[in-house]
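Please produce the structure of this protein holding zinc ion.
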Amino acid sequence: MPLYEYKCKDCGKVTEFRSSMDNKAEMAGSLICEDCGSRSFSQVFGGIALTQGSSGGNDLPPDTGGGCCPGGMCNL
Ligand SMILES: [Zn+2]
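Below is the modeled complex.
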């Protein structure tokens, strides 16, 4: 279960919580700062490695070799 960090926009206190992806938005919406009681948070992405491009990425360049062998070695 991933760990999320949210930083209070008012006092800067970082609050951590663990939640499933489905409950993340709900958890974030119910956060209250322990220090100042603020509900204004911004998510901190420092410790989480996000993977980009989960779909696609098959845009390979065309094969420049041509024919059956790269470099035309077939004609020897
Ligand atoms: Zn605060």
